[in-house]
Design a protein that fits this description.
Shape of chain A: globular
Organism (chain A): Arenibacter aquaticus
Strand content of chain A: 25-35%
Mean pLDDT of chain B: 86
CATH class of chain A: Alpha Beta
Bound molecules: adenosine-5'-triphosphate, magnesium ion
Distance between the termini of chain B: 23 Å
Distance between the termini of chain A: 34 Å
CATH topology of chain A: Rossmann fold
Keywords (chain A): ATP-binding, Nucleotide-binding, Transport
Strand content of chain B: under 5%
CATH superfamily of chain A: P-loop containing nucleotide triphosphate hydrolases
Oligomer: heterodimer
Number of strands of chain B: 0
Radius of gyration of chain B: 19 Å
CATH architecture of chain A: 3-Layer(aba) Sandwich
Largest interface: A-B, 24 and 20 residues
InterPro entries (chain A): AAA+_ATPase, ABC_transporter-like_ATP-bd, ABC_Transporter_VariousFunc, P-loop_NTPase
Protein name (chain A): ABC transporter ATP-binding protein
Order of helices and strands of chain A: EEEHEEEHHHEHEHEEHH
GO molecular function, one term (chain A): ATP binding
Structural class of chain B: mainly alpha
Strand order of the largest sheet of chain A: 6-7-8-3-9-10
Shape of chain B: globular
Mean pLDDT of chain A: 92
Structural class of chain A: alpha/beta
Number of helices of chain B: 9
Order of helices and strands of chain B: HHHHHHHHH
Chain lengths: 236, 248
């Protein structure tokens, strides 16, 4: 599904990714974890072609993505910070994205699921953070694509919306979709993910199931295992 | 946003056209006044609109970048949207009053057409320069500042420096220097082009005279149009080039 090889990226003097290799197979939910600023968003944006790597190659669905754009038709992406054009109405934004994608979409159900009907004619700049995130989720899930990339999907959501989000994720997973998710909410990660990928110092520091991570760190809870792994390399 | 402002811009030119014709009462004289306005104002408007549009549609751009759209189409589309609507406003805004005033029956029609073509070139050039500057500067204030400085330099400072160099290097043959100096400034180039066509030696100035002496009127026109074309193509090409490499 996704194959990343020897990926290097630096912003100015800040080396964010240094020789990262990662293979994501089709089907299942992969959580990308790592401290703030470890390069999770950078990796995701490189896969989407929004960040241009200094070195290395990325292929998605068996084609190298360099200078390509059509493959994005197969990806649904939820950005970490929903920076929408503020002067658009929610309805207009949805229509616009549909127009670009030219794919069948099922936004009505999603709008109803997240109770967004009252906001359809509001401008995006006037929405609360959580409501914006719900719009973000609707835009991401309304198309049927094999790869779904969610950068901090839980940000700002109320408990009910969070439950709906998890249901959505499981429903899509059952259809054989592949997910790439970043989150700092360990409980959420533990609930949804099949495999975790831990990013540290520009490389994949750990990749495997949560059980394997617990064994490796000799911790009994996932949260402690993650805490342990982030201090690991200071010891050895 | 874009359409509202290009409307205002259109009305401004409409008004300008009518006022000039009213004051000058003669088409060919109005053309000269118009040239002086166009040569300074059109680049300024192109610069400001270009920069503002780029920064204002940043969120929009980011949204599009994650969609199945080619990068160069996103940026060229935005550029052509701004430059195109500015050009339309200019051509229609000035065209309507002049046509109503009997442009088609007058012999100023070619002069006037050339004026509009030059205006269109200047819009394309300066909007492209502005987009270049904005794309290379994350910081809005800096980008805006550099873009206005670039305009100020080409519209005002350049001529000053040029005149100074003429005085300083008085004893040397300066023909090729001044030819080059004109070529490297789209505003000077436009002015020379129009004055060559109008064939007003008194206004032609030093460079214009050299231009005429060097190339003759016909070749001079062709060469300056080619240079304007180059001035248009290069920044647009660079725009696509930066856009391809930029991180979002
Ligand atoms: N466009 C950019 N220009 C310059 N530096 C950037 C850019 N994008 C990211 N960075 C830097 O790259 C580093 C990694 O950022 P990134 O957003 O990938 O981290 P992250 O792992 O997603 O963090 P978080 O958990 O806070 O979301 C940071 O130091 C950040 O400042
Ligand atoms: Mg991030």
């Amino acid at each position: 599904m996704i194959h990343v090889e020897n990926l290097y990226k630096k912003f100015g003097k800040n080396q964010v990714l240094s020789g990262l290799d990662l293979t994501i197979d089709q089907g299942g939910i992969f959580a990308i974890l790592g401290p703030n600023g470890s390069g999770k968003t950078t990796l995701i944006k490189a896969i989407l072609g929004m960040v241009i790597p200094n070195e290395g190659s990325i292929s998605v669905l068996n084609t190298t993505i360099k200078n390509k754009w059509k493959y994005r038709q197969e990806i649904n992406y939820l950005p970490q910070i929903a920076n929408f054009p503020g002067n658009l109405k929610v309805r207009e934004l949805i229509a616009m994205i549909k127009d670009i994608r030219q794919k069948p979409s099922e936004e009505e159900n999603l709008i109803a699921l997240f109770g967004l009907e009252p906001f359809l004619d509001k401008k995006l700049s006037n929405l609360s953070g959580g409501t914006k995130q719900k719009v973000n989720i609707v835009l991401t899930f309304m198309f049927n694509s094999p790869l779904i990339v969610l950068d901090e999907p839980t940000t700002g959501l109320d408990p009910l919306a969070l439950i709906h989000l998890k249901e959505l994720i499981f429903k899509e997973k059952a259809k054989g979709k592949t997910f790439l998710i970043t989150s700092h909410i360990m409980q959420f990660v533990e609930e949804v993910s099949d495999e975790v990928v831990y990013l540290l110092e520009g490389k994949i520091y750990f990749k495997g199931s949560i059980e394997q991570l617990k064994t490796k760190t000799e911790e009994t809870t996932f949260e402690h295992a993650i805490a342990a792994i982030s201090t690991y390399n200071h010891h050895d | 946003m874009r359409s509202r402002w290009s409307y205002v811009y259109f009305l401004f030119y409409l008004l300008l056209g009518f006022v000039l014709l009213f004051l000058n009462n003669e088409l060919s004289k109005a053309v000269i006044t118009l040239m002086n306005v166009i040569i300074v104002l059109v680049p300024l408007i192109g610069t400001i609109f270009g920069v503002m549009y780029y920064y204002n549609s940043k969120e929009f751009t980011e949204l599009l970048l994650a969609q199945p759209i080619k990068r160069s189409s996103i940026f060229l589309g935005q550029y052509l949207g701004v430059a195109g609507s500015l050009t339309m406003s200019l051509v229609l805004g000035l065209g309507i009053p002049f046509v109503l005033y009997g442009l088609f029956q007058s012999n100023a029609i070619w002069d006037f057409s050339l004026l509009l073509i030059t205006g269109a070139f200047l819009t394309l050039i300066f909007t492209a320069l502005a987009f270049n500057i904005a794309l290379s500067n994350e910081n809005k204030i800096k980008g805006f500042g550099y873009a206005v400085l670039a305009w100020l330099f080409l519209a005002v400072i350049y001529d000053g420096l040029f005149l100074m160099s003429l005085i300083v290097f008085e004893e040397y043959p300066l023909d090729s220097l001044s030819l080059a100096a004109t070529m490297f400034n789209p505003i000077d180039l436009s002015r020379t082009l129009i004055l060559l066509k109008l064939d007003i030696s008194a206004l032609l100035g030093y460079t214009g005279a050299i231009f005429k002496q060097f190339f003759g009127t016909g070749l001079g026109l062709v060469i300056s149009i080619c240079m304007l074309l180059l001035w248009t193509v290069l920044p647009i090409w660079r725009l696509g080039h930066i856009a391809k490499r930029k991180d979002f």
